[in-house]
Design brief:
Helix content: 55-70%
Strand content: under 5%
Number of strands: 2
Largest sheet: 2 strands, antiparallel
Radius of gyration: 45 Å
Oligomer: single chain
Strand order of the largest sheet: 1-2
Order of helices and strands: HEEHHHHHHHHHHHHHHH
């Protein structure tokens, strides 16, 4: 029963009591109270306790109705907060929302510990939750989605995965990513640099000044040696990169085998002779390989003659077999 209806019924009840009492006793009654004299009909004094009880009960109803109002308002607010938190959790955000009602406090703590699994089937009635779920699934499946409207944090795993997805379909987006990469740390920066190696010019790659490892050097050499690729770099830069990555004998030998078709014989000899003079034994196999490939046998004999008999055993064997009429494939023999 509503307060208004309760008050109206109580008023009718009090009026009925008053009229009933007044109908058989219309006399007055004087009440002495701390020196005060109050004179009212007997019917009034009979109705007064009921009136006081009605006022007290109305106060009780108002208090608990107000308390219920506050709870419902808090529950509605918590419901909205939880709804938003659930959407953010689906999108990979960390949620730390505060709640006022006990039920949502527990649900909120459970939500923090949960993680949305896009590989499992899900069905949501709320449109925005369903849309968030569909986007999370799409990103997990390798698609690029526009996430700007959700205002997700940069560290969000879904944002990182979405950026990687964009990088796959739009390799030049690597230029935007690398603007924020001071070093090659983190998967995103590494992937962006990896994509950069596939399309950028040597000068663009060099501009980032990231450390060169053997894998990066091989990638650039593949492009440099590919006649269909416009990628170009000077010989001096090749030398500098070999120095930077602390190239070993096998690295110089592999370079000699691959680059021999790119450079002219004179340029090839000049390059590896310079490396041999600078690096000594480390670049010696590569230099001897180039000389043998160009059939500069006398030069090879000169180098072998002035070296330790225990050095360059394979090349000594190669010359011995050649001198005895054996045709040997140098690449197979040296395993390069």
């Amino acid at each position: 029963m509503g307060i208004k209806r309760y008050f109206l019924v109580s008023l009718i009840y009090m009026l009925a009591i008053g009229l009933y009492v007044y109908s058989f006793n219309g006399e007055g009654y004087t009440l002495e109270f701390f020196g005060l004299s109050l004179s009212f009909p007997v019917a009034f004094w009979m109705v007064l306790p009921v009136f006081i009880l009605v006022i007290a009960s109305i106060g009780h109803l108002v208090f608990y109705n107000f308390k219920d109002f506050l709870y419902k308002r808090a529950w509605k607010k918590d419901s909205e907060v939880f709804h938003e938190a659930a959407k953010n959790r689906i999108l990979g955000e960390e949620v730390n929302a505060s709640y006022k009602t006990d039920g949502f406090k527990f649900a909120g703590k459970m939500l923090q510990a949960m993680k949305f699994d896009p590989s499992l089937p899900s069905s949501f009635i709320e449109e925005d939750i369903a849309n968030a779920s569909a986007i999370a699934v799409s990103v997990a499946n390798g698609n690029y989605e526009d996430l700007k409207k959700y205002k997700l944090s940069k560290e969000n795993p879904l944002v990182l995965q979405n950026t990687l997805n964009r990088l796959k379909v739009e390799p030049k987006y690597a230029l935007e990513i690398l603007k924020n990469c001071k070093e090659l740390e983190g998967e995103l920066c590494k992937k962006a640099y990896d994509a950069l190696l596939d399309f950028a010019s040597f000068n663009e790659i060099k501009r980032y000044n990231f450390p060169i490892d053997k894998q990066t050097f091989r990638r650039m050499m593949e492009r440099y040696l590919n006649s269909d690729d416009s990628f170009d770099m000077d010989v001096k830069s090749i030398e500098e990169m070999l120095e930077q990555l602390n190239a070993e004998r096998t690295d110089y030998l592999e370079l000699a085998r691959k680059i021999k078709g790119k450079l002219s014989p004179d340029s090839l000899i000049a390059l590896f002779e310079k490396m041999y003079n600078a690096k000594g034994i480390v670049a010696a196999d590569a230099y001897l390989y180039v000389l043998y490939d160009l059939q500069m046998i006398d030069k090879i004999r000169e180098i072998l003659l002035n070296s330790d008999p225990e050095e360059f055993v394979k090349f000594r064997t190669l010359l011995f077999l050649r001198d005895n009429g054996k045709s040997i494939n140098i690449d197979t023999f040296l395993n390069v």
